[in-house]
Amino acid sequence: MVTDPITSEALVRASGVDLRIGRTQILSHVDMTVGRGEIVTLVGPNGAGKSSLVRVVLGLLAPSGGEVWRQPSLRIGYLPQTLNIDPVLPITVRRLLALAGTGSAAKVLAEVGAGELAERALQDLSGGEFQRVMLARALLREPDLLVLDEPLRGIDLGGQLALYDLISRLRRDRGIGVLMVSHDLHIVMAATDRVVCLNQHVCCSGAPEAVSRSPEYAALFGTAAARQLAVYAHQHDHTHDMHGHVVENSDALGGRP
Amino acid sequence: MIDDFLIRALAAGVGVAVVAAPLGCFVVWRRMAYFGATLAHSALLGVALGLVLGFDLLLGVAVSSVAVTLIVVLFQRQRLIGSDTLLGILAHSGLAVGLVALSFLRGVRVDLMAYLFGDVLAVTMGDIAWIYGGGALVLATLVLIWRPLLALTIHEELARAEGVPVLRVQIAFMLTLAVTVAIAMKVVGVLLIISLLIIPAAAVRGLSRTPEQMAILGAVVGALSVVGGLFASLQWDTPSGPSIVVMATVIFTLGLAVGAMRQARA
User: CB–CB of B29 and A76 under 8 A?
Assistant: First the structure.
């Protein structure tokens, strides 16, 4: 078992969380903490309870046992797993952001690299554009904690890397904590401080490199997957923009050397 | 010189249409057309209630609408009966019980057609006071809950995570819908009320880029439907309520065509 690093300031803490829905045990005795300025990624197979844990942390589901502590007056920015805006509702990006908060829409859109999208109808956006707009919307609320449930769905690999870079830059610039769910094992490790492997209970958790070497992780995902992750970390010597083009590493993009 | 009864009819009809359209936008966005129809149909039970117990009919309708709303909210917690089935049961049992109850009122002459299809040419100054009082209440409530209601219409779970009091906002919205049904009944009758809610909203979807645009344009279309429908009804001696709905449908069809042409050009 890999031990958690000591975090400076906890934003949310789940202690011994149990969740049963009907007769199905979804989560059993889960401990997890997200601190300020920390990126925590939940990984695990389908049906492992990742989204359920997120919803417990957010207060959308009441745990059957254990407890969830949230820092008082914690501001949460949330990107749910399924986000479809019904086309029967007309709405532009600018209007969506104006409804979400009083801050400058132009500033947050620029921050996520979506400045040119302000006047577009939400239903006309591509998957990657949409995720960036929703991220901008979450940032407008000036969150202490950003919760992203599979933010990479429907985005190509290059776009995924750019989104990860964006998230780690936001963490650095704003000092916010990030809780992410992913089953895209290949790129989880790139910009994560701590990985929590979930399969109803916490199998293992800790720094990405340590987790990928742990036997619990290999048992859950197979040794081949674990090896691929290691290989991937070495290959990551360039970055991609949202459209998948290879670009030079630079501080502006938050690329890893 | 326009006759007094026509001025009263115009005032009542336009008042209802301007209130109904913005509310109808949410009915369209939240896919609650069937809920609206249920409220309206079961309003006949409220009419019977008012006649039997001898209090104001609008009050009777408001009571029955609130009751239906609460039943629907309570039944949302169970899963054995689908919500469309439940709404179907409520709509038609409300209508049926109302018709049966009215048939027992032997002593009173009841103009059933007026309740079913509206009789806007017979509105009194008292009715207009009800319409404008209730309408002002509905619009004020809608302005108050606009942001949270829109947030939970866009994504309910997201709104909940961000601290929107979802249940309270939903109930407030359903109650404003109930009041709207009560004040609209005199104009178009219980069977046609839902059309004043959803047709103007649907007519302007293709022309709108924001929710607020759709609500305002919808109110304009609603008012035009009332004015056009009333004059057509006088011109050709057709029933006023259905004429208003026919006019709304004509505008809806034109709106579809204009929206399609815009899209083709873009």
Answer: no
